[in-house]
Design brief:
alpha/beta, about 45% helix, globular
């Protein structure tokens, strides 16, 4: 299927590895010119080169911390009129809420709620004026089924979800959609850190905890960044203009609900 994305310009945040890299690769393969951003120059440039080789697309690497005003300005300088924005940032650390201070909560909300909102604010009116826009926020299945040790993430990402639910209904008439992708267990550094925390708390080895986590999923495996990226590309496609304000769960069937 031709997704109608050839020539579109996309920004993908936290794209040097994991799910962000999967999204950037899929969009580049569909003909987008992609700006990828991350904090570490080495891995980011390696990713940019790999995507160029695999897709032949124009890929620009911007070393920036998306959670800062200066970082967002630097990214927008490289792509001032994006058609597509993929918001993504590393999640806050796992732990027990009794050990978190006010500063921990502020940091989590700033990175995983306020940062994507400010990036949407900086780009949405241009999308509306041009008559096309796709915003995808990478959040977590913890929005629908909270994970006890990820309380900081549960709270911050739920706040973003509530904000998007209202705005997405205002922008869709202009062919500008906003959706959230909710990853479950994907084989990323983030998942590995969560498994390490679980293993430490339970006294199990990392490998035992990992195998148990996979076995507990209906798919009996973890998802791949490529699978995630393909769904992102579809949500950004011309064909997806009637999908907005949705929380798309990708978890191998782990969420035990009908809605």
């Amino acid at each position: 299927m031709d997704l109608g994305l050839a020539g579109r310009k996309a920004i993908v945040c936290a794209a040097s590895k994991g799910l962000g890299r999967g999204c950037a690769t899929a969009l580049a393969r569909e003909g987008c010119e992609v700006v990828i951003a991350a904090r570490n120059a080495g891995p980011l440039e390696d990713t940019a080169q790999a995507i160029r080789r695999a897709t032949g697309a124009r890929v620009h690497a911007v070393v920036a911390d998306v959670t800062t005003e200066a970082g967002r300005a630097k990214i927008l300088e490289a792509c001032p009129e994006p058609d597509i924005l993929v918001n993504n940032a590393g999640g806050p650390p796992p732990g027990n809420f009794r050990n978190w201070a006010r500063e921990d909560w502020i940091k989590a909300v700033d990175a995983n709620m306020i940062t994507p909102i400010l990036f949407i604010k900086a780009t949405i009116d241009g999308m509306i004026a041009r008559g096309f826009g796709r915003v995808v926020n990478i959040t977590s299945t913890s929005v629908k089924a909270p994970i006890a040790i990820l309380g900081l993430s549960n709270g911050a990402r739920a706040g973003l979800t509530g904000f998007v639910a209202g705005l997405a209904r205002e922008t869709v008439r202009h062919n500008v959609t906003i959706n959230n992708m909710l990853p479950g267990p994907f084989d990323t550094d983030r998942l590995r850190s969560t498994i390490e925390a679980t293993a430490k708390a339970s006294g199990k080895s990392f490998e035992v905890a990992r195998v148990e986590r996979m076995a507990g999923n209906p798919a009996a495996r973890f998802g791949t960044a490529e699978e995630f990226g393909d769904m992102c590309a579809y949500l950004c496609s011309a064909q997806a203009g009637f999908i907005t304000g949705q929380n798309i769960v990708l978890d191998g069937g782990a969420f035990p609900g009908t809605l």
